Amino acid sequence: MLTTKMIISRGLMTNDRQRARIKPNLGGYRVIDFEYAAPTELDEAIRKLAAAGDSGRVLAGGTDIIVQLREGLRSADLVVDVKKIPGLTQLELSGEQGLHLGASVSCRQIYDDQNIAAAYPGLADAVRIIGGWQIQNRASVGGNLCNSSPAADAIPPLIAYGAQAQIAGPNGQRVVPVEEFCTGPGRNILQQGELLVALTLPSQPSGAGSAYQRFIPRNEMDIAVAGAASWVHMDKTGERIEQARIALSAVAPTPVFAAEASEWLQGQVASEEVFAEAGELAKRVATPIDDMRGTAEYRTHLVGVLTKRTLATACERARK
Q1: In this structure, are residues 65 and 79 in contact, taking their beta carbons and an 8 Å threshold?
Q2: Which CATH class is domain 87-201?
Q3: Other C-beta atoms within 10 Å of 43: how many?
Q4: Alpha carbon distance 47, 296 (integer Å)
């Protein structure tokens, strides 16, 4: 296990031996001093996080927490890097058990695996658009969930698949549906000393399909104005929807499960009219705000459009 002092200054991460190279008296530099630990055992990580209390932070890929520390959006006395813990880097696809996705598995590992991308195309849709390829080499789906942004791209597909979050902490382990994980912007159910270990997605039956889409006003703004994920399971004819799950992002304080729209789709014949009606029902769980990315009215409109599009794509994939 590695423990050292780390400093971030304008995006630079260094250790004690390089401290002299940082000149905090120069204008514009922000120096953040904290302890860095890289345990190789889960129990050790839990002990360190519990001891650090509210001043402990987890680093899975670092694409969010490093920026937040540098910009002063979060503070930390201890940062625990969990990428050296074997269980958190496990990625395994099983026909019976489904997908086991360690909390530190990078986005690229998911879409680079053709079998996983084919079995869970909605998740692959999302991880392909989380930042550029440099970010995707580091960013993890688990980290995206724990960052708990209302506009997170990976969370709606997880909700649509009915994914479960495996959490470990000082009081043992617990399993929570992903749709119950986020409690507000940047907030979630993790308690002091707890960390996300893995995500499990159910095995996909024949006739299942999924899709995720988001809308951004321009390529330079990589945060969704609205997003929607749809999952369907169709009957043997490929015409009727037996089960469905729809989830939305960027239109509420947390990513949300559109339960009413999902239940209404059961037994419906797949058609443009049915998809449009499901989109109207999905709007009922949207409680968006006006901000620089779009108005509440526009976001609500996008819920209908994106739900209709993702349902159409999910059904098409299910038939294949």
Answers
A1: yes
A2: alpha beta
A3: 11
A4: 43
